[in-house]
Design goal:
mainly beta, 5 helices, about 10% helix, about 45% strand
């Protein structure tokens, strides 16, 4: 006989039956996703106790490749099922940045019943099993902090139990509950049901996901930049901000690669002998592939000096026989070249954008992969579309012969990611976004079989693995039995800084958005007490308002894609861009308006290719937006009641950023190392060049006299640069290594600044075997 527990909590309002995998509220059965149910069980075993996020992740997900966003989503699903309010919780309270607490009293009862298998006496009293745990590990209650353990063997001396009618009913309820949960997952479009097993695996033809096993465990402040597995599967070479490393996969032994001082290298490809590595020498401490002054070098694990192969290359890939190297030219990465392995005989293979995608204004190639025969190359062609952040580039999977003939599109799908490898069995593997309807970027490994002669795919993409976060790198062994992937997340977060009145410098920023999903703020409220931002937390894009002295935001609006929230001249309305399909520039975007005090959103205008919009502050009533027309950028006025107005300015062959001063009198336009100041009253303009500082964007300060730009110092550190219309510039805030600033916007009262920073989360290598 085994024991299971039933829980009644929150004044008898809610009941949970562990064995039956059921949740009821006021007598009504509630559908519940399995992981969310296990989170609830953990909290029920620890009522009114603060449980950290780490404890919950370890208990429910064990070593699976997930981030805190998985826990956040499960908590959100529990709250939706229970009808709980995050701001006034009745059941589950959030302790910001720490964890969660079940806030109500819990009454526990034990049900003694037969089971499908008996419990060994060594388990002792108090062992708890959930329905899901019967096959996937158990939730132990040997202490006040339960943990997940592997399923324990049944004592062979214990006779099997004969199920009675009650047990049979419990089994049917369990099956029904699991079936209901699966149907719920299918109904929301989560494409995680079928996975094709490799014929070389233990169960030919079986459908199951391959398992990603962690290879490295770097902290978030030392993220992996790239990782590649050796052809024989013995080693993985990887780089992080502290250097280049060689790790023996079987033992885990890791040693630094001895390199000359100042030699910063990222690994890209192994030579087939397994002793030589092709790396890109980065410019300084640069984190960006494709910048100028990058070169390809050859390294040996046996020692010796690095040997330069070619200049001006941002990525390189060795052919299967080691005789050639395919590489991408810097700084644009829009040309693929092939050369002999010693750097001789370079020849161009293909350029990006030769077949223009509608609505794209920039394209590049990255990454590449050789076919097993060495006759073809697969590559991903990336296209930037006319839409602001958080819209992302669209991607094409192409193949081309190594001599540059017959470039063919294999797959045109916005769900394609940034990682690629061509296996020895002929399958092309690539990263692929799991749920097209979700606002979050969770990618799995997918495969497609291609006929090299025709370039035609044998069928749709087939899933290999599933997990969470982006995949930014992929490489495999020569026999195709091991795959190493790099999962990496860098997410924008909102910070608040204040100004030192004496030095006019900005103080160290403090984090405002306590959520590890994307958070991008673009505006202050008129009273300088709150910011307005967009976030993809809980799987959908939402518009939020949050006071700078509080830890949780207020939801204002929700859409498939929301971007660039800004205020109307009088500060009463928030204006934002909304896209039904942000990856397709042929679909018009909508400029929406929603009262900050509450009310339904309404459409102000709909246009193709909208990039930016901004209003001056009262008493001015000027509002303008920019859109792309061919290769030109057009700036037009608009009115909150009447929509689009007249054309104010057209800039040929320019697509970039601009900012409107708060009084509506001036416009600043950014282009690389110089900016243009334009008087909207007279049309007079003058250019200012600020050497050594990339100036791709910025915002006027509150007084309209200077401009604030997020950029990088020559040593690679992020800074906020302030400069006036004469070009006189000074650094007013210095950031930390490996964390980029997006922009800084000063509050209307000039006391504060909001800064969006790129924060690295988990970035590590994972290995997949026998897929």
């Amino acid at each position: 006989m085994t024991k299971s527990k039933s829980f009644v909590f929150c004044f008898g309002d809610v009941e949970v039956h562990e064995r039956e995998f059921s949740l009821t509220k006021a007598g009504e059965a509630l559908p519940i996703e399995p992981k969310a149910f296990r989170v609830l069980l953990f909290l029920l075993h620890n009522p009114q106790k603060l449980i950290t996020k780490e404890e919950l992740l370890n208990a429910v997900w064990a070593d699976a490749a997930v981030t805190e966003s998985s826990l956040t989503r499960s908590i959100a699903k529990l709250r939706r099922a229970l009808g709980d309010d995050v701001r006034e919780p009745r059941y589950i309270a959030t302790v910001a940045t720490v964890g969660y607490r079940l806030v109500c009293e819990v009454a526990v009862s034990e049900d003694v019943q037969g089971d499908l298998e008996s419990v060994d006496a060594q388990n002792g009293p108090g062992r708890i099993e959930s329905a899901e745990a019967a096959g996937n590990g158990r939730l132990s209650n040997d202490s006040t902090s339960p943990v997940l353990t592997d399923k324990e063997p049944v004592d062979s001396k214990t006779p099997p139990q004969i199920p009675n009618q009650r047990n049979w009913r419990n089994r049917k309820l369990l099956v029904a509950g699991v079936a209901a949960a699966l149907l719920l997952l299918l109904a929301v479009g989560i494409l995680r049901r079928q996975f094709t097993g490799d014929s070389t695996g233990p169960s030919p033809g079986a459908q199951h996901p391959a398992v990603e096993q962690r290879l490295t465990a770097n902290p978030s402040d030392a993220p992996l930049r790239n990782a590649v597995v050796s052809p024989d599967g013995k080693y993985v070479a990887y780089a992080d901000p502290t250097g280049l490393y060689l790790r023996q996969i079987s033992s885990g032994e890791t040693r630094p690669w001895r390199l000359p001082k100042g030699f910063v290298a990222w690994p890209f490809s192994w030579f087939p002998d397994g002793t030589h590595l092709l790396v890109v020498r980065m410019a300084g401490q640069s984190q960006d592939i494709g910048l100028s002054n990058q070169s390809l070098y050859r390294l040996s694990i046996l020692g010796g000096d690095p040997q330069e192969v070619v200049n001006d290359a941002g990525a390189g890939y060795v052919s299967p026989d080691g005789s050639r190297i395919a590489y991408l030219r810097t700084p644009d990465l829009n040309e693929m070249w092939v050369m002999d392995s010693d750097g001789a005989n370079p020849r161009k293979v293909v350029s990006s954008g030769e077949e223009k995608k509608y609505g794209s204004y920039e394209s590049w190639i990255y990454p590449l992969a050789w076919s097993p025969t060495g006759q073809h190359l697969a590559y991903i062609e990336n296209h930037v579309v006319y839409a602001p952040i958080p819209a992302q580039p669209t991607h094409l999977l192409r193949i081309v012969s190594a001599n540059g003939q017959g470039a063919i599109v294999v797959l045109d799908d916005p769900r394609i990611g940034e990682a690629l490898w061509w296996g020895s069995d002929g399958r092309i593997l690539f990263s692929y976004r799991e749920d097209p309807a979700s606002g979050q970027d969770n990618y799995g490994v997918y495969a497609i079989t291609v006929d090299e002669r025709t370039g035609k795919a044998a069928g749709p993409p087939q899933p290999i693995t599933q997990a969470e976060s982006r995949i930014t790198g992929m490489s495999g062994t020569a026999d195709g039995k091991r795959l190493v992937i790099l999962r990496s997340n860098v997410v924008p977060q909102v910070f608040i800084t204040s100004r030192d009145a004496a030095s006019h410098q900005w103080k160290e920023p403090r984090r405002l958005t306590l959520d590890d999903n994307v958070n991008i703020a673009d505006s202050w409220t008129a009273d300088s007490k709150a910011v307005v931002f967009v976030s993809n937390r809980n799987g959908t894009w939402k518009l939020f308002k949050q006071k700078i002295d509080e830890t949780t935001p207020e939801v204002l609006a929700e859409s498939r894609s929301i971007a660039t929230p800004r205020l109307s001249p009088d500060g009463s309305q928030v204006l934002y861009l909304s896209y039904s399909n942000p990856g397709d520039a042929s679909v018009p975007g909508s400029l929406m308006s929603r009262p900050l005090a509450g009310g339904a959103p309404r459409t102000i205008l709909q246009e193709k290719g909208i990039l930016n919009h901004q209003c001056a502050k009262a008493p001015s009533t000027l509002c303008i937006f920019s859109q792309v027309d061919g290769r030109d950028t057009v700036i037009r006025s608009f009115d909150l009641k009447h929509g689009a107005g007249r054309e104010l300015m057209r800039i040929p062959d320019w697509i970039g950023h601009w900012s409107l001063s708060s009084d509506g009198s001036k416009l600043v336009i950014f282009h690389q190392h110089h900016v243009r100041f334009v008087s909207l009253g007279t049309g007079a303009a003058h250019d200012v060049t600020i050497k050594d500082w990339p100036l791709d964007g910025g915002d006027w300060a509150a007084d309209g006299k200077t401009v604030l730009t997020a950029t990088q110092a020559p040593n690679g550190l992020p800074v906020i640069l302030e400069y006036d219309q004469t070009g006189k510039a000074k650094v007013v805030l210095r950031g930390s290594p490996r964390i980029d600033f997006h922009f800084m916007i000063q509050s209307p009262d000039a006391r504060y600044g909001l800064i969006v920073e790129d924060i690295p989360t988990d970035s590590n290598a994972w290995i997949v075997k026998d897929f």
